[in-house]
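Students often ask what a holo structure prediction actually looks like on paper. The answer is less mysterious than it sounds. You provide the chain, you provide the ligand, and the output is a string of discrete structure tokens encoding the 3D arrangement of the protein together with iron/sulfur cluster.
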Amino acid sequence: MTDKPSYNSSSMNCFGKCGYRYKLQYMEKRRGLGNYFTLKGNGTHKARERNFTQKITSGVDLPLGDCTDAAWDEILTQIADDQIDLKSDELRGKSKTAVANLIYKDTSPLVERDHDALYHLTQPLYVEQRIAIELPDEEFNLYGTLDLIDTDYRVGDAKTSKKKLSPSNIENGLQMTLYWFLAQVWLGRPVPGGYFDFIYTGKHVTATRIPWTRTIDDVVKVLARFRSMHDSIKAGNFNPAPEGSWWCCPRWCRFYHECPFV
Ligand code: SF4
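The corresponding structure tokens follow.
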């Protein structure tokens, strides 16, 4: 791989929201801390990862208890490693044990719904597959870690959120376009599309699969966006988030407490 910069969909998403945050996270390699919400998502993701990794060869899903155990292990690990902001609103004043129990209590229903509704729909071929590709005609390269590619060469991804998603969010999403492009290049064969497994974390937890497809025209547009981002970075433009942005708050920005702009 060349020494050109490499971008992924998260870096694009971050830069689009706040250039200063991008600089801290991707250029200065500062990690920041997670919170109640990120850890619920990570726990649900870890349960999937454990299940689908073994399913490549076994062809069967793990019992629910093994999947919630995977979520519990992830929650304990991140808390023990001090990766979670214990001063955030939902966790302030609680011991690490109480935090772990609270987050597990709220994560296990998500794992259960996901396990029962969606796991059985997927037979994975690759899980947590990192794909990096060189773009000889660009000043940057691209990469991504795909949750999974199934035996029909469809790309699978999952997200937990309290905010309802509409199919149009998925149809136009940059991340899916990038994953489709990466998978095609890496596999060296056509990829029919993929699906987005959405676990809604509102009062009544639901798990829904939203299919998507992409064309090369979508890739052309995404490459134009990466080119624009690259030009801004080269020019040293790292502007803070616009005033009033919903993501510029302690809950959604890991650097809020040290940011000179707020
Ligand atoms: S607090 Fe706001 S301006 Fe500061 S890094 Fe975070 S998103 Fe950007």
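The first helix runs from residue 9 to 17.
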